[in-house]
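Quick question, first post here. What does this chain look like in 3D?
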Amino acid sequence: MRATLLAVPALLTALAFGATSAPVWADPAGSATQVTTEHQMKPKKKKTAQYKAGFNKGFDEGCIDGKFKLPFTPPRSGDSKFSKGFHDGYVSGFESCKP
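> Answer (accepted):
Ran it through. Tokens below.
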């Protein structure tokens, strides 16, 4: 009896709304509720040779400062790719070479 009581509202809803309330697996091509979205991935930015050179030099200096317990003084990150790489390298080197 309970199954009948639960099935009646579902049957009435299906009759009232027709195909829009049908499950997607019943008719995926004709279902009005099917939504598709496209995700476009952005290409990764390649690091330039200037950035890599700055990063390597900054890493070396940061590592020396970290090993000898000098104060953490990262240089300002400027507009050039070299200076941005130097800043990132210094921070990375200082953190990885602390005793």
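The two ends are 74 Å apart (CA to CA).
The CA atoms of residues 4 and 10 lie 10 Å apart.
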